[in-house]
């Protein structure tokens, strides 16, 4: 099966997710800096989520670029990932509007955790379809960053009831880990 439709559909869904997130930021009632102050948690939540969704989009692109074929299982695994990513605008808005109360922060982390698990499943599904000696298998390797990200999300969820700032710091730390360019796939693809 070709991968063009899967890429196009995923790109469209991710673009809509980002659009929904920005539309959730309400215009303040006032024309001074003080009117912006209550929006700071909302805006910072948006920035954190925008970075996470952007990282998924970037890595999803590289992942599918390295895949030569797509199985039916990969289509379902991709939908599973998109389901969790589609919940990011909701938990982002809830977390920001409630000024990072522990429960919304924990639910935000749960959605990030499940998106991480879904991405891991998608990677494994694509690896199965490509075979153990494929370019994708060589590029992914042991996938330390993917595995440690899920562990950090789980840790942050547990910490959210004790220390919200630390939990959000861990969510941001995972984003920072992935912002460091991951050249695994690019290094294994032939120059085009």
From TrEMBL:
Keyword Ion transport assigned: yes
Catalytic activity: K(+)(in) = K(+)(out)
InterPro entries, per database record: TMEM175-like (IPR010617)
Subcellular location: Membrane
Coarse class of the protein's main subcellular location: membrane
Membrane topology note: Multi-pass membrane protein
Transmembrane segments: 9-27, 39-58, 70-94, 106-127, 148-180
Pfam short name (any one): TMEM175
Taxonomic superkingdom: Bacteria
Keywords (A to Z) from UniProt: Ion channel, Ion transport, Membrane, Potassium, Potassium channel, Potassium transport, Transmembrane, Transmembrane helix, Transport
PANTHER family: ENDOSOMAL/LYSOSOMAL POTASSIUM CHANNEL TMEM175, ENDOSOMAL_LYSOSOMAL PROTON CHANNEL TMEM175
Similarity comment: Belongs to the TMEM175 family.
Protein name, per record: TMEM175 family protein
Organism: Roseateles koreensis
